[in-house]
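To: structure desk
From: M.T.
Subject: fold request, one chain
Message: Could you run this one when you get a chance? Sequence is below, nothing fancy, just the single chain.
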Amino acid sequence: MNIIGSGLKAGLIGAKLGHSLSPQIHRLLGDYEYRLYELEEGDIPGFLDKMRSGSGPSAINVTIPYKQTVMPYLDGISKTASSVGAVNTVVARSGRLYGYVTDPVGFSCMLDRAGIEISGRKCLCLGDGGAAKSVLEVLRARKAGGITVISRRSGTDNYDNISRHYDAEVIVNCTPVGMYPKNGDELFELGNFHRLEACADLIYNPAVTAFLRDADRCGVKTVNGLTMLTAQALRSRDIFLGITDDDIRPFSVGEMSEIADVTSAVRRDMLSVGLVGMPGSGKTSVGRRLSELTGRELIDTDAMIEEKTGMSIPEIFSRFGEERFRDIESECVAEASKLGGKIISYGGGAVLREKNRMLIKQNSAVFWLERPPHLLSREGRPLSGGKSDDEMREMYNKRCAAYECASDARIICSGGEETIDSAAKRIMRMTGIPEI
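Reply: Done. Structure tokens follow.
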């Protein structure tokens, strides 16, 4: 990765930037200051005046909702930005401000990395906001067979009559539907799209939105927006540093490799580790060891349930029954599974509901900790306490398919400190999460 640009003062302006990944990405792309500037719309002219005079940053990225707001204050705008009608990169040079847009080249990179073909395909663009403008620029340039913008504001092409477009081959989500913290929201289901080849979602948190999860069930190519975010940042960096003025030029092989490396590093940091398995299989113990080794917070959904209700789990079962317990458990699964960069231990029965299984995988690499039924701890457990080995084996056999569906890999965890440690370290090797 390039370590360049020491002395440059750059940043990002927008209205709400609390969850922005841009500082992390730019730290990986170069050695320069990159700050977040949360601004009101009325602050924009004064901020740009400071850039022009040299008393502010010399280069910025621009995000929602100011990509069009800044345009009247600039001294020059690139051809691409003029065509798209938005700017996401501004640089100060000799007292003048110049605007560019790197989102189209970022979206192009996203398509290329995922192997999504556009030429000749009927494409749906979900949403008609600022993000859609860059997407439409690329779809047209790649000679899509047809492009339809689906919007709530449209009288002819909206979500109520989406059935008119069941022959679409590529769908791109440019809306915030399904984005953190409203994980799980979805505009429509994809099962009736009989020619569908690929789905791209500009959202990157969660890593797997309901839209992409549905697309994956349909067996089509999928990609989220993290590659686009990294790619547009790399091109912005090169504009910041005066390496290029071309905001639409395709990336070189070396640049694609750098984008892949940075995207992988960011994805690894965003990724949680989810642990599923039978009651007593060692999820809490392995989770604690992972937390010690990685410095990541351990979240235990059983502990969340007890904190939420003020009761122990056996007491909840005794007073309200299993179905009420599962409802509370589902609420805690939905909350925990949204989080990134954590270690999450899920209760033994959390996988029994299909929705939970899907949520558990949305932001995590999920590992099924498997322990032989006769070795499973049963003390103090409302469903397995007092069961014989045969009964435990029967419970295990009933749940196997659910654990398989909810997980990405299986880890044998037969018990003991050495096995707990080795299981934790194997998970770290498989995910690439480093030891602190």
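Reply (cont.): The CA atoms of residues 106 and 229 lie 7 Å apart. Let me know if you need anything else for the meeting.
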